[in-house]
Amino acid sequence: MRNHACFMLFVKVALGMGILVGVWEAQLDYDYYKSSCPDVENTVRKAVLGVILTDPTAPAAFLRLLFHDCQVQGCDASILLDSKPAKGNSEMASGMNLGIRRLETIHSIKEKLEAKCPGQVSCADIVALAAKVSVAPSGGPDIQIPLGRKDSTTSSRQAADVKIPPSNVTVDTLLDIFKSKSLNLEESVAIMGAHTLGGGHCLNIVDRLFDRQPDDQINPGFGVILRLLCPTKTPLTNLTVVPNDKTPLCFDNQYYRDVLLGNGLFTIDSRISTDQRTAPIVRQFAADSRRFFRVFTSAFVKLSSSNVLTNEEGQVRRKCNQVN
Length: 324
Ligand code: HEM
Ligand SMILES: [Ca+2]
Ligand SMILES: [Ca+2]
Hints:
Layout: H1 2-16, H2 40-54, H3 58-71, H4 103-116, H5 123-135, H6 157-163, H7 171-179, H8 185-191, E1 199-201, H9 206-209, H10 220-229, E2 241-243, H11 254-260, H12 267-274, H13 279-287, H14 289-304
Antiparallel strand pairs: 1-2
One calcium ion binds at residues 69, 72-74, 76, 78-79.
């Protein structure tokens, strides 16, 4: 299995990358559950590894879930709330959350943790941990993250509509988004390396393929393949998924090599390979996966610690889909 080969290939690098990034978000704590739920990380890891056995694309789902949670109101598990009282007002009802999956795994991890340490572990920390423990088994760095996020009591579809960037977002907006979470330029390019895993629906690609003005950032050969995979704007466009890079189960720097060759799946992937500010960094990561892993690690800690609720600002939901 490619995933396994990838794991073997990168195990040394991953081990070498277990560096602690300084606690940048002062209110979170690397030892937060030391006495209240010491086994929390292993519980999440075991559950995620179990899921990967039957669904090797699950790590991609957990990484994207974290981004989409953190992007709306901060990393507060708002994405898991069902809408009440108004139907259809959950974040998941937003079209921007098309393809978000594996929420059921988060709910089942929560049930396990409620049995072990009732009322202790927030859903927001579970979302962050599920993403974190997804990276190393895919061949990426072993990241340490601080914990202690609390869960929100609110969520709204409209916020997701506005805050989650579309596939054709500009580099300016991308840099603004990550700057607001304290990521520097290099970290902003590194966090996009999450697109080394998983894939996207044709729906998010077809606009690049069939408009009268062909997208000149797509390599012509790759364009032919994409037009074959995503033939027309039909209902199927909502269903077909195309891989993000050539190694979608492997957390490697292939994404950067692909985008440099004009094989970026989304408009934004192509844009970072040509924008004067980001292109030199894309080239560095394409040539040096250790560097990509190191910068991705610090970027991940910042993203997953952004706009968190701590202490009395939020709650530890007993069920992740509803407030207490
Ligand atoms: C400007 C920023 C970003 C844009 C515009 C963007 C856009 C997208 C789009 C359109 C998809 C395809 C969704 C689908 O059609 O199913 C996608 C997939 C994905 N994104 Fe992003 N993304 C961004 C940043 C990020 C970040 C920061 C992460 C994680 C840290 C991330 C992780 C992923 C992953 C892992 C997938 C594949 C999901 C799967 O296979 O289920 N993305 N992204
Ligand atoms: Ca959120
Ligand atoms: Ca890859």
